[in-house]
Each structure stands twice: as structure tokens, then as C-alpha cells.
Amino acid sequence: MNFFLETLQVLLLSIWYNVESFVHLFVPRRKKSIAGEVVLITGSGSGIGRLMAQEFAALGTVLVLWDINQDGMKETARLAKLSGASRVHHYLCDCSDKNEVYRVSDQVKREVGDVSILVNNAGIVTGKKFMDAPDSLIEKTMEVNTMAHFWTYKAFLPAMIANNHGHLVSISSSAGLIGVNGLADYCASKFAAVGFAESVGLELLATGKDGIKTTIVCPYFINTGMFDGCQTKWPTLLPILNPEYVAKKIINAVLTDQVFLLLPKSIYLITALKNILPMKQGILLGQYLGAFSLMDTFKGRSKKQE
Amino acid sequence: MNFFLETLQVLLLSIWYNVESFVHLFVPRRKKSIAGEVVLITGSGSGIGRLMAQEFAALGTVLVLWDINQDGMKETARLAKLSGASRVHHYLCDCSDKNEVYRVSDQVKREVGDVSILVNNAGIVTGKKFMDAPDSLIEKTMEVNTMAHFWTYKAFLPAMIANNHGHLVSISSSAGLIGVNGLADYCASKFAAVGFAESVGLELLATGKDGIKTTIVCPYFINTGMFDGCQTKWPTLLPILNPEYVAKKIINAVLTDQVFLLLPKSIYLITALKNILPMKQGILLGQYLGAFSLMDTFKGRSKKQE
């Protein structure tokens, strides 16, 4: 196609996509059915993972739960069955260990079948100033929050590619879009998760595998215990999120094939501004919004909760 | 401070910073002197690393070169001396190996002294579709392009903090801001480098260490061999960059304490648009700009060049 025609086509389609987006501000998008899909959720023994399991259960899916916490996972399985899951399988799996991820993936494929909705949700946080963070925790943060995504893709993406059908859900964070004081290793791992999911998503599109969707979730702090103690300065603009609300939004994003889900909505604005404003103004606004002191009162999940 | 006063202050400063930014579109920023600073450049045996070494040499710095390529590093040392470096030290160091990074860092501190300008430049690229990329190369990409930044910060940041003086330069990539088909592991590692450098930069500001500056460099493809074979579709908008040009721009960014340096300038626009446009339009524009086929003709650095 020549330059003129290609440019004209891009312009017309651009207008059309903007009209479509505008209309969908008022008209909800059509939801796909996921009944019968095999949904794997890592880190589903507590928090958002458990709540997503309950939501997916209510939609008639087969659930595969992974966690390092056996008791938490059993409780999730019980709740998922109550919510209507046809089958629930659970596996102890430490996502920081590549070999274990591969071993348990093989077991899932043998015992349950191919996973068609992969939710990379397991995540950990060090919660220390970078110089105070032990190397072992920094490495583990990268292994769980980033590298486990690589290995689960390696394990479950081939079947999705063969069927040109599936959904890859990456639970990242607003700290995967904007750097945060006191979360350097966490930010590195969550930025990486975003870049990885985005790139593979484009690779699938480019290779014609448009039946495999990607959803990248970037929520602000959620009230699940993981970030216990953290305080938000302007709760109207940047509220600490309710876990049930986040789980419902994630499921809705999956059902409507939404690629990026940022929560709360103000994160869209803040992310956009970050790339446009002068650096000094960005830092000023960060201070104003309390982004510099978010982690000052961090306590995190108590041992008992884990 | 109360809400009203704080908001007013933010508004007034915001206006001032925008005026300042506008003025600096026409009036160059003041450059700092870095004569006598100890500059460590990882991966300085070739490419941009070598060119930066020559530029830093001409500014009267003490140079510390790291690379896995002894011959390349010696050639860089020779060129740096020609360019006027007072002292040039070079060390074999494999940045994929944490223990080696720590060992060589200790050696540098003993033999040369504290590093005050740390340039994390070493980088590798797999250049394969994600499912075709061997795990070992994916892991190595994360180790060199991301984790080595952690360990060099651990090694050299304490002295900078003690003196409240230093500069952290992270050579990331435009692929650290925008996902690219065919570069999933590279994007993960480069996104992580951006998030990490940004977070530690904010941490230093928040803890009052404002004498330590951060510069994050995100260039499009550079004609150094690393991305040999790659073709750009619209060379006017997204030219394959000239390495000498990039090196000069990086040094200029360091001398003017510029936080983000995106090259070419169109990357600023593309990054900003990515967060604003409807997803479908973003993908459409990506295809239009050739972002889907960038890696189709990738050959990379030949063994001989390495």
C-alpha cells in the first residue's frame, strides 16, 4: 500500500476507534462467555487471588489454584465451590522456583488439561528502602513478580497458540507504571511484568494469534493486608481500593477483552501526566499527592496472615 | 500546611516550572563540571559504552571500564587516553554474575576509589519470539539488563549517599517504555531498569539526598551492531540512531542533570500518546509506524563483533 492510502486508512480508522471508545463510555461492552474455560490463578490462597477465584467460579469455569499456603488455598477452594465452580483443583507451588513452576504446570496439564485463562497474580513486596533490602528478597521479588510470568507463559501458551484461544491476565500494579519511593525492587518487577505482557500481547497479534487476549491490571494499593499500614494522602483522588471491587473490575476486564485496567481511574490521568509534564512539576505533584510518603508507615502482611 | 495553601503553592510552582521548561526550549541549561569524577561504565568494550567513555574522557574524568571483552576494553582505554582521560582503569566483569559484580566493585573501590558517576550500560538482547527464546538467555537478559543495576547500586550508592554527591545513569531503551513484538524478555528487562532507576531516584529525593542525580536514557535502535538487520519503516520519524549522536546527547543529559532522555524526540510523543489513545488506535499506529515488524529482519551482533 502506498503512503497516501495507508495514512488515509489510519486516519479514518483512528476517528472510528475514538468514536467507538466514546460510545463505550456510556454503552457497556459485550461480555464473552467463559463457561468451561480452565482458569489458573497463582497466589490464590488469599487476597485478590481468592476473590478472583470466587468470581471466576460463579461463571462456570474449572479452577486451578496455586499458592504456597495450603490452608489458604483449601479455604479458597471451599469458597469457590460455594460460588458454583464445577471443578476446583489446587496445587502447592512456589512461583519463585522455575523448576517447581514447570513441574506443577506439567502436573496440571496431565490432571486437569490445558489452561485457557492464565492469571499471574502471585506477588510479594519487600517494603524497604533499596539499600536496606536484602539481596535474597530483591531476587525473590523479581522471581515471583516477573520471572514466574515467563515460566507460566512457557508452560501454558503453546496450547493457547495451537488453539488460537486463551486469555493472559497479568496482575501488575500502578507501581508498574510510576516509580514509588520505598518500592524500588517491587517497581522493577512490576514494570517488567507490564513490559513483558505488553510485548507478548503484541507478538501474538503480529503472528495472527488474535484469539489470545491480554489483560494487564495496574491497581493502586488494595486493602488486602499486603500493604498494611500504608496511608494515602488524598483518599478521594487515590483511595486505598476495596478488594471485592478490584476483583469484580478485573473479571469485567477479562470478559470484555480490555487490555489495560488501571484502578482507580485517576491513575490513567496521573500516568498520562507523568509523560507530559516537566519533571520538576511531576515531582511536585507526586509530593502533593503523597507519593513520597506512601511507604513510610508500611507494615505489610503479618506472619500470621501469611 | 493546610489544603488551600498547599494547593496554591503547587499551582504557582507548576506555572513556574512550565515557564522554566518553555524558556529552556530556547536557552540551553547550565552544564555542571565533572572534572575529577570517577566514572564507571559497564559494557564499555564497544558500542555506546565506548563512545561515552571517550566523551567522559574529554571532560577530565577518571574512567573505570567494565566489560566481558578484554580486547574491546583495551581499545576503549586506548581511545579514552587519546581523548584526554587522566586515568583509565579496566576490569573484566561479567554483569550477569552478582558475585562477580560485588567482587570487582570491591576491587575498584580499593584500587581506584569511590565511583561518583555510575553508568549502567551493559546490555544484551535475545532477539527471538518469546516461545523460541531459551530460558538461559531470558534469565541472562534479566541479570545483565536489570539485576546488574541492583548490584552496582548496592556497591557504589552508599559512598554517594555519604557524600550526597553522585550521578546514576541508566541506559535503558525505548523498549523500556513501549512493548515491542519480538523483544519480550528485553522489554521486561528494560521496563524494569526504568522503574528501578525512577524509584531509587525518588527515594534519594525523599530522603534529602538531592545531590545524587538520576538520568534514564531510552533510545530507539542505535546503529552499533546490537540490533543489526533491524529496519525502521519511517526513517524520518523514527530514524535508526547514530551512536556518536546518542553518546553526545547522554553526556549532555548528565551535565544538565536531565532525568529522562528519550531519543529520537518522537519517542516523547509516542510514549505520551500510548497512555492517551484508545488501545485499538495505539495498535493501529504501532502497525503504521512499523513497530510490529521491527524485529523481523533482526540479525544482531555477529560472533566476530562480540
UniProtKB/TrEMBL annotation, chains A, B:
Keywords for this protein: NAD, Oxidoreductase
Stored InterPro entries: NAD(P)-bd_dom_sf, Sc_DH/Rdtase_CS, SDR_fam
Signal peptide (UniProt feature, chain positions): none
GO molecular function: oxidoreductase activity, acting on the CH-OH group of donors, NAD or NADP as acceptor
Record flagged with keyword NAD: yes
CDD domains per the UniProt record, alphabetical: 17beta-HSDXI-like_SDR_c
Stored SUPFAM superfamilies: NAD(P)-binding Rossmann-fold domains
A GO CC term attached to the entry: lipid droplet
Record keyword Oxidoreductase present: yes
Pfam families attached to this UniProt entry: adh_short
Family: Belongs to the short-chain dehydrogenases/reductases (SDR) family.
Record-given protein name: Epidermal retinol dehydrogenase 2
Species this protein is from: Zoarces viviparus
